[in-house]
Amino acid sequence: MGCLVRRRSDGDEGCPMNLRYNNPGHYYPFNHVDLTITYHSGATEEWGVGFRENGGRIISVKVVPSSINHRNPSAPDCSSKEPLEIEANALAAGQKINITYTYSVKFMPNDTIKWSSRWDYILESMPHTNIQWFSILNSLVIVLFLSGMVAMIMLRTLHKDIARYNQMECGEDAQEEFGWKLVHGDVFRPPRKGMLLSVLLGSGVQVFFMTLVTLAFACLGFLSPANRGALMTCAMVLFVLLGTPAGYVSSRIYKSFGGIKWKSNVMLTSMLSPGLVFSLFFIMNLVLWGKGSSGAVPFSTLIALLALWFGVSVPLTFVGAYFGFRKRSLEHPVRTNQIPRQIPDQSIYTQPIPGIIMGGVLPFGCIFIQLFFILNSIWSSQMYYMFGFLFLVFIILVITCSETTILLCYFHLCAEDYHWWWRSFLTSGFTAVYLFIYCCHYFATKLSIEDAASTFLYFGYTSIMVFLFFLLTGSIGFFACFWFIRKIYSVVKVD
């Protein structure tokens, strides 16, 4: 481990670990580490009675690497400030060099910090807390704005519409229907590709509850930041165990569309999204195997993942679908006409593509600051510990996706466009496209990845994250819109 100071003309000042290492075209190997171990002696605690003066509980270990040129390897001077410089082109291929590695240890007692509060110093030393609060306030402003818009529509516009619609009793008045009531006979018409939509919604519900429970566990302290694999393990186990809600929701939605191919629905729900994620993961693991990386997942672990998938998740999905298909089909508040109504020409603002593109802007605005810290944790080996902030941002994301989709859905219904099924899913799901664009920006500006294999791995894992986020946000928007439409059409009198 060390630093390479490149010959650059863009203002590069040297190694970020120590600005004294700034000679261009030289390596600075970190051959010395200073270890500062802070411990609680337990002298004033019950648990420290047995330690006496011989021990305690470690609170923190601070490691500071440095480069020291040990001129006399038999008697190294660890206090020397002279760095070990190796010219980048000085060594030929296969040539060996002897480097002396040293370390120093310093024990510091601190009885003011309890062992249970040993992580607090990280929170206090990180400068990102103010940025996090700024992110939360920024997101709350967006939520308040959207909530005000939705409240205005609900309390004023919708209330007036419903009161006016319900006062129409004679036939002449009925012919004067306009706005969203005009499409009451088509608003619940089954969409095209209903099978695919129901499958994606089932997987989206699975991802939603997986995320919700995982973040709740992390906030309650069940998942320690010290164990970097605990969060992913918990999420994976929950995803497997939540196959039942996925099968149930998918079957209920598909049955409401009038679908009869229940076997295909169950198989696609249990295979499509997990299969896509596993295929991407397996391809990237092949790249790691080919490179001989220690980060490659062993073959036995892949077999265990397949066993969890086919032995636990798939049967649970079948169980959920069984109960979903046994229940009566969802009854909509209004009947569907046999002949579809012609949709009038739409303005550019109410056409599908502009509405979908606009729908993802506000939800992404709520998460992009938090997203920076998450990407740093994944790709820059930084510890992520702010699960409380993340859970709050997740709640704000749910509210923002719901309100944005409801607003745009209402505007489209007022424009007599009743094709809302796929549009509600894609409107909030388009947030994932902005997520992918931001990940590309992060790759270009924050990372220094040059080889093709690492680039492929980055975009492979990013694709998995974007796909799961698409399912999550799309499902949130769909069910919010579904609830909204059922609600408004259940309170108007329709002949």
Describe this structure in words.
Belongs to the nonaspanin (TM9SF) (TC 9.A.2) family. One of its GO terms (biological process) is protein localization to membrane. The chain has 495 residues and is mainly alpha-helical. It folds into 2 domains: 2-125, no CATH class; 128-162 and 176-491, no CATH class. The protein contains 14 helices and 6 strands. The chain has helices spanning 120-125, 129-167, 171-174, 194-219, 228-241, 243-256, 262-291, 299-326, 352-359, 361-379, 387-414, 421-429, 431-446, 452-489, and strands at 2-5, 26-29, 32-40, 57-66, 86-87, 102-109. A 3-stranded antiparallel beta sheet has the order 1-2-5, with no helix packed on it. Strands 4-3-6 form a 3-stranded mixed beta sheet, with no helix packed on it. It is elongated. Residues 169-175 have low confidence and may be disordered.
Strand order of the largest sheet: 1-2-5
The SSE order reads EEEEEEHHHHHHHHHHHHHH
The Rg value, from CA coordinates, equals: 29 Å
For the termini, the CA-CA separation is: 77 Å
Helix tally? 14
